[in-house]
Amino acid sequence: MNSIERFTEDVFSVEVDEEAGRLSVEFESGYSKETKLLLDSLILGLQGIEEEYMEYIDVIFEEV
C-alpha cells in the first residue's frame, strides 16, 4: 500500500485486523493502471510466500 500511496494519485483507505491477519483496501473511485500493476506485484509476492510457508499461511483474495 505504501507504493500505491507514494507512486500514484489514487485515493484509498486501508483497514488492518492484526489479530485475524486481514488487510482490507477500498479505492474511492477505482484505480489506475499503475495501481493495478502494483497490486498484481503484491499478489505475486503474497502467493510466493504462501507457497513457501503453506503450512502456516493462507492467502485469500475477495473482490467486492
Automatic annotation (TrEMBL):
UniProt keyword Nucleus, yes or no: no
GO molecular function (one): cysteine-type peptidase activity
InterPro entries linked: Peptidase_Prp_sf
Keyword flag Ribonucleoprotein: yes
Swiss-Prot/TrEMBL keywords: Ribonucleoprotein, Ribosomal protein
SUPFAM superfamilies: TM1457-like
One CC-aspect GO term: ribosome
One record GO biological process: proteolysis
Protein name: Ribosomal protein
